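Case study B.
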Amino acid sequence: MPKPVRKEVFPPARVRRYLEPGPIVLVSSHWQGRDNIMTLGWHMIMEFSPSLLACMISRGNHSHRMIRESGECVVNLPTTRLTDEVVGIGNCSGAGTDKFAAFGLTAEPASEVRAPLIGECHASFECRLHDDALVGKYDLFVFEVVKAHVAPSPRHPETLHYTGDGVFMVSGRIISRRPLFRPEML
Amino acid sequence: MPKPVRKEVFPPARVRRYLEPGPIVLVSSHWQGRDNIMTLGWHMIMEFSPSLLACMISRGNHSHRMIRESGECVVNLPTTRLTDEVVGIGNCSGAGTDKFAAFGLTAEPASEVRAPLIGECHASFECRLHDDALVGKYDLFVFEVVKAHVAPSPRHPETLHYTGDGVFMVSGRIISRRPLFRPEML
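Model:
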């Protein structure tokens, strides 16, 4: 059974480090006294500072209304230790299930939002709704990451990247090409 | 030196298979008689059908105007065979460089757009601008993938996933949890 992971405060302007590689995330929310979690693969960094993150949260998900009404969520980064939880959470609805209880996950208090952090995740990014201009047309939310928490090790956690059809790519080796970058591109 | 890869036509509704895991892509464009290429990490699948893809293309890039004016581009998927080209292309401007020539890449004709495919990439997705509502505010383009071309093998190409600081994560092993999915979630 995975255990909660100790995290440290991390600069919101640097969350691309964890999200730009394209991992599956678990989005936690809180509204009208209830918590929920959804599995999400469709997200994208949009800006460093303010730290903007776009997420496609389909209105078919129970979380859609919770996040739209509360204007908040937490984007949590699971590792392969949580593979079965990621799949299970993505295959049931928060309308009928308390997912924290059902999957044995720990809801920890956030500091800037009412949505909880998921203790067992490697990182948690507290988000506030920044722009809902495309929510009506595309279910596209633009969030600002207002506080970030990251476990100090491992430096490169083993993340899950969804390809559809029930199949995941797991993050592999790390390579640097730093000497080939212009300084202003780093 | 990488060589052009033979590709087959692929259903646009299934491009999430290649893009949802979050790889670095090479975006090719054509405007006023010139081709260009840029390296891009900020993209996101938005819908299966029509096949919608959001891309953040900063106005600081020469490609921004070419794509906005032509309303077209091709999103190409490079593998680790093209790592140095990916870095090189991301660290120079198309304003002063013919990047196809400079990096020894092959511009192949697309079928639905005037922007060229990059022959050496594993897959190429021809895109037409679908919605420019957020281009002015965020440089966010919403494209429709109108035609897709994918090399039939390998089934899981070794892709590059950028973490910032000149460091890439390379795609790793493949795992399936298909039996745990509800049929309608596949």
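Chain A has five helices and twelve strands. The remaining cases will be described in the next quarterly update.
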